[in-house]
């Protein structure tokens, strides 16, 4: 029985007929095409879908549309005012843009609507009131401090009528005309108005909706699969099983071990394994059909963790066994090292599986074309790999597939593996109609790869003066059911497991193991997050044992120019670690009374609350390394109207690569950034930028963009030199134009003149980063490293064990800060993700079954967890980086967790060796003293 | 999935009862729906035929003084309760409890009626109401009855509501009539004869997992000088149903406020409360460890408010 409702949306009256189960979010998005309101969880947790109902922030994805009868709704599309055909932003929108509060953009409509309601009720909110109002409006890019500043600035603007005041962020010490100065990202405007389109916002004529039948059991042999009831359900157009796969039956990023669909007689290796695909006229019918599919299993013993998987009697999950890879690092002689040491410490640490929890769940839409090709619309970190994998599964040549990347609501490594792309393409190919496959939050949590749970044993030997002479580590990494990027991730965990220190004797052994847990793969930090927690905890234990200052201990052992890394690489430039440590120490001293930084400080009047600082350091490679060719292509074209377009299929997932590409080109061509458009992630239109992983894109695609610009500039110089008969070196590129022999040509003139000469004003550059060497062969395993030190100040409640992080000082050596405004957002988000890793996040799997299969059970940090974050930018340029820049996306997250756990130890003497921090353990341990 | 077939929105309590009892079943009353809709969507509640939305019934959205009692309609959103001056004056514990349920957007929709009807032993709103000695007005086919809150619960997640019955609202005794609020920010209420009344709600959370309290606690007390005249203490999850620490309350009544009194009261509470272990949230040992801290903290605040 349908409901007729009338409601006012953004000032317009609508009469709608809605279904009994329809949500307000669906009514807005599907019926009224107001797709600015996004859907993140459908379980009243994330706040992304917030709209105002009669002025009150309301979660539209759990609000029955029928209830909206007679209500007045305001959505993000209703904030900006149209004046003379131009949108004029609301001060909140303007402030979000100017402050750099917009990253992936997916949460922004919810943030702005929630804060709009706050400011209506309270025009001058305190920080506490603001945090109270935004508590459950999550941002996984986690630029919470900037979001807060933007809202407070907008509040000021609304009260006074003054314009918003963008923050003052210092320029890079290596600043050029544009590079190194804060710039607003090119996509910020559309992301604050709700115009920004993400995959799920797209609709195609005749589009079907897909749903996937998942195994639901962690380990079994599929004995039978009955799809007849699903096939007979009216509205179902196709039900596909493994028998319908036309090409290869497995996919993967490195190892092709992941079944596209598990066939009868084959092995199910985790609960998220796909058994069958349904395409139907509606999402509801597709889900009903999936519920009618009847699999029969022969259940097998479940392999629960990496250590169990390594035992000789463990069930074998793959033909090759359970060992994906034994990774070894060898340097010096351990016997010599430990014999020399005055003190030897050993401890074992455990880290939890964690989830990226990007706020935009996976979505892909496959559209079959009349010419026999297929388009796949998807937010993916590796568009060209998607093309390869979809083509393989369809048995097609790659050129028949076109991946058209969409704006991504966060990735963090979690959108590198293929999720729905192959499945939607198979269904589209089978039905001849466009097919949308959208994961809900539950499916996203259960299916996509996680951060590896690890067990890390560290044995460390040092001299009395603190000099570390030997470090031996043993790691077990749980890579779950399939390889994904497990080998690469655990290699990084292993090579970085002795910390950013110059140690003479190093041995590391890592066992990357298959289990029946969800696969583990790339996740910001890429293994180093785990090993940094272990080794940085050990450094503090060592400092305590030797009675040394933990800052001094780190400084003494820190990697410097000239140091040899654990893999035998000599660091020749760009090692800013000591400066990071120095600056963090100085900032701690500035903020702390008394000579002792790391002693417990009870809060006067509340003696059960004890504060202390903790410190940690870290390093992280930029780029793939290990001998893998690391390339990116960029193409630059000058249009007749004098504007440029730079293209690469590198991925923009919110991190700000589009700004980097724009600035690289604008700097070389001497034009304002607005004159350069950026097109990314389209395999027909953009050259391969490689995977967006390993903090590599600023470096490789930044270089590719810059060098494409240099190439085009040289071509322009040659052409103009020929035409005007002057030496090419006399041609000047300045102030948005080209100066030839005293004449100023606009870029539109240049484009026209080149075309008249039969030349295309276009350049393609394929950049290849300096060669690297495989692990174990010595030499340069990586072409650059980023370095960091962080200090965290915590407050521990000694009665309850509760932990709050009050302040984090983060110093990052990023080579050159290309866009300081974007860098600020990356650092805030990195710190918050590290804080979540320490305090809130725990992806729990029991006997292969996922317990944390809802966002309600998997908690990511919110604005109420956000400490004051003090970002210190350290710039030691790297020779081959674009303007000296190297990666930043991961390094800013790596030291946070151990800085927090070391601070907890300094406050109350409880050593956290298992993540996340368990307040109950702290309280009970303190109670027994 | 078609989790329900029709959605109806009655505008009177009588219409709602009629709908619940005569519409094609199963029929489910829905207030804010922030829990139940998710239970339906996630398969924890079996599909129903009819949803009866109670949020358009003026009686259930009313919040007012009725004689000497505060009436809070079961359909009033928690955010409205949390900022209503009447509730701030007379039922501060309820303000604090309602202001902590879920997040701000949830509180704009979720209701006190839903919080109580869910019958969870540590529901914040329930624990707040319990210390205020609230009564629920329950209406069904056979008319209305007033039920003392403790009698509304039979087990974890199970209320004493019969099929076709709904909670229309809650009554809370007030003490300020004839007197004046004691402090500028309405921290406590008194009736002018030296006796003062105050309440307080606090809870302890953990940052991981489901956002349910490890332990929550609410206190209402009457203070006369340095004496606790009367006190009511509610603790969640102190048993299978929302728990009142009656032995501790009885001990504290007419005693001076002192460390010694507190110690004995805590012993009494610990002897009668039954904390259990909740997987991935807290062991019972941890809860026993915390309850003293929380009791002291809450009592101190309530005592000072009444001062």
In summary, what is this structure?
The complex is a heterodimer of chains A (929) and B (307). Chain A is an alpha+beta fold. Helix content of chain A is 28%, strand content 25%.
The CATH class label of the largest domain in chain B is Alpha Beta
Largest sheet: number of strands, sense, barrel closure of chain B: 6 strands, antiparallel
What is the ordering of alpha helices and beta strands of chain B? EHEHEEEHHHHHHEEEEEEEEEEHEHH
Major beta sheet, strand line-up of chain A: 10-14-8-21-18-19-20
Estimated share of beta-strand residues of chain A = 15-25%
Low-pLDDT segments, ≥5 res of chain B: 177-188
Explain this structure:
The complex is a heterodimer of chains A (929) and B (307). With 929 residues, chain A is of the alpha+beta class. Chain A has five domains: 3-78, Beta-grasp domain (Ubiquitin-like (UB roll)); 81-199, DNA polymerase, domain 1 (Orthogonal Bundle), CATH 1.10.150.120; 208-300 and 360-409 and 415-447, Aldehyde Oxidoreductase, domain 3 (Alpha-Beta Complex); 453-624 and 776-927, 2-Layer Sandwich (Aldehyde Oxidoreductase, domain 4); 631-768, Aldehyde Oxidoreductase, domain 4, CATH 3.30.365.10. Chain A contains 23 helices and 38 strands. In chain A, helix 14 links the parallel strand 23 and strand 24. In chain A, helix 11 (383-394) crosses helix 12 (421-431), helix 15 (528-546) runs parallel beside helix 22 (896-908) and helix 21 packs across helix 22 (896-908). Chain A is globular, with a radius of gyration of 28 Å. Chain B has 307 residues and is α+β, with helices and mostly antiparallel strands. Chain B has three domains: 6-53, Uridine Diphospho-n-acetylenolpyruvylglucosamine Reductase, domain 2; 62-173, Uridine Diphospho-n-acetylenolpyruvylglucosamine Reductase, domain 3 (2-Layer Sandwich); 189-305, Enolase-like, domain 1, CATH 3.30.390.50. Chain B is 31% helix and 26% strand. Chain B has eleven helices and 16 strands. In chain B, the strands form four sheets. In chain B, strands 11, 12, 13, 14, 15 and 16 form a six-stranded antiparallel beta sheet that branches. In chain B, strands 4-5-10-6-7 form a five-stranded antiparallel beta sheet. In chain B, strand 8 (153-155) and strand 9 form a beta hairpin. In chain B, helix 5 (92-98) runs antiparallel to helix 8 (124-131) and helix 9 (246-252) runs antiparallel to helix 10 (259-272). Chain B is globular. The N and C termini of chain B lie far apart (56 Å).
